[in-house]
Amino acid sequence: MLSERTGYIIWVSDLKAARALEKYGSVHYMSRKMHYVVIYMNAERAEDTIRNIERLHFVKRVERSYRNEIKTEYASDIPDKTRFYSL
Q: Which UniProt keywords apply (predicted)?
Protein backbone atom coordinates (compact mmCIF):
# COMPACT_ATOMS: atom_id res chain seq x y z
CA MET A 1 0.00 0.00 0.00
CA LEU A 2 1.37 3.40 -0.97
CA SER A 3 1.49 6.12 1.64
CA GLU A 4 0.31 9.67 0.97
CA ARG A 5 3.16 11.86 -0.30
CA THR A 6 3.51 15.61 -0.19
CA GLY A 7 5.93 17.91 -1.97
CA TYR A 8 7.97 20.82 -0.66
CA ILE A 9 10.10 23.47 -2.32
CA ILE A 10 13.18 24.25 -0.25
CA TRP A 11 15.17 27.40 -1.08
CA VAL A 12 18.85 26.89 -0.29
CA SER A 13 22.02 28.96 -0.28
CA ASP A 14 24.43 26.11 -1.10
CA LEU A 15 23.55 23.32 -3.53
CA LYS A 16 26.47 21.13 -2.52
CA ALA A 17 25.21 21.10 1.06
CA ALA A 18 21.64 20.56 -0.22
CA ARG A 19 22.54 16.98 -1.11
CA ALA A 20 22.06 16.26 2.60
CA LEU A 21 18.31 16.65 2.05
CA GLU A 22 18.19 13.17 0.49
CA LYS A 23 17.96 11.61 3.95
CA TYR A 24 14.69 13.47 4.64
CA GLY A 25 12.81 12.34 1.51
CA SER A 26 13.03 11.82 -2.23
CA VAL A 27 14.78 14.68 -3.98
CA HIS A 28 12.94 15.19 -7.25
CA TYR A 29 14.74 18.22 -8.69
CA MET A 30 17.57 20.61 -7.82
CA SER A 31 17.71 23.96 -9.65
CA ARG A 32 21.27 25.21 -10.02
CA LYS A 33 20.23 28.58 -11.36
CA MET A 34 17.49 29.48 -8.88
CA HIS A 35 18.86 27.50 -5.88
CA TYR A 36 15.86 25.46 -4.85
CA VAL A 37 15.17 21.77 -4.26
CA VAL A 38 11.89 19.92 -4.83
CA ILE A 39 11.51 17.11 -2.33
CA TYR A 40 8.73 14.58 -1.70
CA MET A 41 8.14 12.91 1.68
CA ASN A 42 5.50 11.04 3.64
CA ALA A 43 2.62 13.35 4.57
CA GLU A 44 2.17 11.89 8.05
CA ARG A 45 5.72 12.78 9.15
CA ALA A 46 6.09 15.94 7.08
CA GLU A 47 5.64 18.52 9.85
CA ASP A 48 8.36 17.02 12.05
CA THR A 49 10.68 16.63 9.09
CA ILE A 50 10.16 20.22 7.94
CA ARG A 51 11.01 21.51 11.42
CA ASN A 52 14.30 19.61 11.23
CA ILE A 53 15.01 20.87 7.70
CA GLU A 54 14.40 24.50 8.68
CA ARG A 55 17.17 24.22 11.29
CA LEU A 56 19.81 23.44 8.67
CA HIS A 57 22.26 26.28 8.05
CA PHE A 58 21.91 26.29 4.24
CA VAL A 59 18.09 26.44 4.15
CA LYS A 60 16.60 29.89 3.50
CA ARG A 61 12.87 29.13 3.17
CA VAL A 62 10.50 26.15 2.90
CA GLU A 63 7.25 26.25 0.91
CA ARG A 64 4.62 23.57 0.48
CA SER A 65 3.87 22.48 -3.08
CA TYR A 66 0.22 22.72 -4.12
CA ARG A 67 0.62 20.54 -7.19
CA ASN A 68 -1.65 17.76 -5.95
CA GLU A 69 -4.46 20.30 -5.36
CA ILE A 70 -4.44 21.70 -8.90
CA LYS A 71 -7.22 20.47 -11.17
CA THR A 72 -5.74 18.45 -14.03
CA GLU A 73 -8.94 17.37 -15.78
CA TYR A 74 -10.03 19.87 -18.38
CA ALA A 75 -13.39 20.22 -20.10
CA SER A 76 -14.14 22.37 -23.10
CA ASP A 77 -17.54 23.42 -24.39
CA ILE A 78 -16.00 24.81 -27.57
CA PRO A 79 -15.89 22.23 -30.40
CA ASP A 80 -12.47 21.19 -31.67
CA LYS A 81 -11.79 22.94 -35.00
CA THR A 82 -8.54 21.16 -35.79
CA ARG A 83 -10.29 18.39 -37.71
CA PHE A 84 -11.49 20.95 -40.30
CA TYR A 85 -7.95 22.11 -41.02
CA SER A 86 -6.26 18.74 -41.42
CA LEU A 87 -4.74 17.63 -44.71
A: Cytoplasm
